[in-house]
Amino acid sequence: MRKYFGTDGIRRIANTELTPELVYKVAKAGAYVLSKHADHTPTILIGRDTRISGTLIESAMTAGFLSYGANVKLLGVIPTPGVAYLTRKLNADASVVISASHNTFEFNGIKFFSNKGMKIPDTLEEEIEEVMESGKLQELTAVNDKIGTSEYALDLIDEYVYFFRKNFDDEFEKYLKDDFVVAIDTANGATSVVAEKVFKALGINYRIINNNPDGVNINHNCGSTHLDLLKKYVLDNKLSLGVAYDGDGDRCLAIDEKGNEIDGDKLLAIISANLRKKGKLAKDTIVATVMSNLGLNKYARDNGLELLQTKVGDRYVLEEMLKDGFNLGGEQSGHVILLDYNPTGDGILTSLMLILSILEEGKKASELSSIVKLYPQVLINAKVNSEKKYDYKDDAEIKEAIDKLEKEFAGNGRVLIRPSGTEPLVRVMIEGEDQEYITKKAREIADLIESKLK
Fold first, then answer.
1. Which residues are known catalytic residues?
2. What CATH architecture is 159-369?
């Protein structure tokens, strides 16, 4: 069991759980693990979101890297995918994003990226933890002229803007219409600095909200986890579309012109249809996770597409894509990976692909999203003993209840049981055609799990 890293890097309450001392140790160990095979002084990029604790964590992180002997480029406030893109572009040895993504402001986190701009695998995170716990850190201290140096490189965000111009300028120039107007909700997060620059550079008519970060309002009743404000804004202003990013900018969800949500599953369907029409969907395949709605499965099957499903986490989606050469994957939460452009979820990129699909098809957002019929879905958390949360697989009574319900569904529903990676919970997710019935069944199974795994 890993001590520090969870399903998406390290994420804790800043300055009490994620202390400067812990960050320093993580940085030093991470610099060693990620650059130990380099034959030169390593360069590491650091980007962050808008949380009040961001500069505190950044300072401790920088100190750890410099103490090891690595040089650091400080990118300032920039979306996670911007850091991933610049890591490859600048041939950096590694990079770090300081962010707690969609969490509230008091949390912060650390995500490491390799020199290929990809989140590092579990094995490297485990190796970093081993170094931290081994007492080896003192040996990794640079002395004299080997101590690293840092520099601010805030202007590199313009390289990220240019990435979008380079890839989309011509296409948007061809299809844009004056009456097509998009609302952008930047969640008072990392995209608040760059999203407006991208939309302006591409000539897209837009209105922007929640782009005045103050260190504590990131994700507060806004962004991809709180869509009500965006929905109201789109409807009140009769806009064509609304797009919302999360705190670090690697997710995107949308609102159509009628105020309906376009979630990650619908985004995958819309973008896959557009790419396939242009002969650009690799192997006619979408990669998603086991949490994707049954409706996406049916959409893929009805349209002759392959849908591959991984365990939850965008890193596992990416691993599957890389393994067999697929170029589209993602999660229901709005992490969409378009591997022809960037090896991580990119909210701005996803929104541009959605907008382009709408414009090229000459249809409204609501028409395009209707290609997928989403099944009602219920998720209930069963509170269990942390040491027993994986034991549900071996319990005959729990297994019998799940098997009985799945037989009853006969392909028109499903049951997914998943232990939480970070909490003493077992998540019970059920999909089916009748919301009231699946809610009742999810509660029954969750109660059963709680009673058996106390």
1. 101
2. 3-Layer(aba) Sandwich (3.40)
